[in-house]
Amino acid sequence: MKNALEEIADEVFEQLRSRNAGFCDCLQCRDDAITHALNKIRPRYISGSPIGSAVTRVALSQLQVRAEMSVVLLDAMRRVQARPRHLGTVAG
Ligand SMILES: [Zn+2]
Fold this sequence. Notes:
The chain is an all-alpha fold. It has one domain (4-85). Helix content is 64%, strand content 0%. The mean pLDDT is 81. The structure holds zinc ion (ZN). Zinc ion binds next to helix 2.
């Protein structure tokens, strides 16, 4: 089961991509951007403690989380766009 943060990341990504026509359409770039954003934003919402990992959907539905997610995701998308991994999985 996806956690609430991942669901928000998916939603926000789709919104941002629809406004950024230049962003690559492939799954690799999508996954990279979302993974990067989640890695960055997660520690702020999920501390790693048992209580933290039980952050509720209600808490995460706040507009603030979406706003922060869009900032972090936009940054992640710029990084992916600058160095897309789909071009050279072998060369690394
Ligand atoms: Zn791509």
